[in-house]
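lol so apparently i was supposed to do this last week
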Amino acid sequence: MIRPLIISSFTIQSVFAFSQCSINDPTYVYQSKFQSARQSALNARRSHTTKDFDTAYEYLAQDRHSQLPNSKPISWFRPADLERQTNPFHLEDVEIQYTSNQDKKLTKMPLYPCGEVHVPFACGNYTLNNIQERNVNMAKDLANNQWPSSLFCVALRAKDTNRIASTATVMQVLQMEDRSVPMHSKIVVTCKAVGIAQIVSIDNPQVWNDDYAGDEYLIANVDIRLNDSITDSESDGTTTTTSEKNHQYTSLANQLLSNYQSVKSIYSTSTTIASNELPPYALTAIQSSMPNYTISDILQPTKFWSVIDTLQTLCNTLRQAKFNILSSTINEMSVDMAMELLDGPLELPVKRHRLPKEAQWKLNEMEQRAFDDYWEMGMDPVLDFQMLMEMECHWERVEKVAMMVGGELERLEAKESLVRVFLEGEQSLMDRGDEVFG
Ligand SMILES: *[C@@H]1O[C@H](CO)[C@@H](O)[C@H](O)[C@H]1NC(C)=O
Ligand SMILES: *[C@@H]1O[C@H](CO)[C@@H](O)[C@H](O)[C@H]1NC(C)=O
Ligand SMILES: *[C@@H]1O[C@H](CO)[C@@H](O)[C@H](O)[C@H]1NC(C)=O
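anyway here it is w/ 2-acetamido-2-deoxy-beta-D-glucopyranose bound
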């Protein structure tokens, strides 16, 4: 499958790149509607912007969870927390259901924290570019068969709290290429997402610190989740019969399929979206990355991950496109402001801190507003997909995906009808014009 604009190599590198530079103006506080959630969740790392439309933040996870109170929250941990736990242990408020670690067959493997969620059982391969010393060491050890079946796991890392999601993607290395040059190591790893695992403990929590610098990688003991249940647990307290349940499931699956086809069709044919929402390259990417699915793709748990993968690709493309549109607007405005407000010759690129405070504030506010709009859109490639990974029941997952696709369809249809109303308005003005002048 083509995977447009999921540039894993870029994102993985950028996780660490972004976490090391703080580009914020500390004097600027935008009173966004997420401020209170943000306040409560941010403890150590307060100086983040979300202007790159990155959503790997715990405060955003809390915000989303508060909108869906019945869903299970993402559980996060610090490696040192796990060391201190005794059995049965808790990750924050989420209890892990083991009475003892010995009850489960745990597998030891390297842990790779990063800012993206990697969907398991997807059709394509993932590419990870390793340049940090610890990741290069991990790749070399995997290549030297130091780890059984060349398995490692990738887990989402929250950038505001620096905690790690306890549900991780199990990866298997397929191919490795050493592209190091003198003084600069680089190993490109091609891997396949083969499963989901629960991180149970960390052997070397001391290597994890705020910057996660150094040459040693984390080693986790994980419980590989073999089979997810198809249905809900028996004890949901209702008296629905199996056939009623089956009927509900079938209609949910059909609804999802039909909404998916409608979304696909709007992206393929709408001139509205093309002229108002997305640049042509993004539309082309979306069209080529949305295959036709059938009901069996939804009914079978493993196949369903391909549908999820497609949805994540769509989310990634939308994020990239929205981000590109915002950056070019911001760049143009910065240049205009610099020409108008600064003395001396124009320096490019415009450094924001050289602009007057008012102008900086205006640009920052624009970015924050664009981010809030983006987040409200509900097409985030990170946190919603982490939630899907955490679910252990297939139909719960189908329900969430159905909600996301349904929401996207509603959004697209609202856009279309808005433009239609506008065009009809123009038409009727023209008609009236004809009457006056005709
Ligand atoms: C994944 O990588 C392997 C090894 O490089 C290759 O043989 C396979 O064709 C790739 N699969 C896809 C879907 O690209
Ligand atoms: C998982 O499912 C497969 C086939 O669907 C079955 O053979 C296997 O025993 C199951 N494993 C567990 C741990 O339930
Ligand atoms: C998907 O379905 C549409 C309409 O039903 C059809 O025109 C198109 O050729 C199909 N695409 C593929 C790849 O099968």
